Amino acid sequence: MINLERINELARKSKTVGLTEEEKDEQALLRAEYIASVRRNLKAQLNNIDIQEKDGTITNLGEKYGDQLP
Q: H or E segment at 29?
């Protein structure tokens, strides 16, 4: 589970008093985990979207574009 409260706490602290090297490392790790989570959620949403083309065929966006997402 991503701890958004801790991410925000570190962001506020970095703007006011600065972060220690350990806190900078923690912040980078938390941000990377958050971005990975957002990407996983986006891929899951795309996998559940089907579009009906003009010719009547159904195209799943996850199958069509899934490999192109980072």
A: helix 21-47
pTM: 0.72
Distance between CA atoms of residues 34 and 20, nearest Å: 21
Separation of alpha carbons 61 and 70, rounded Å: 15
Please give the structure tokens belonging to residue 33: 């985990």
Q: pLDDT tens digits, residue range 4-57? A: 999 999 999 999 999 999 999 999 999 999 999 998 888 888 888 999 999 999
The domain limits of the chain are 4-68
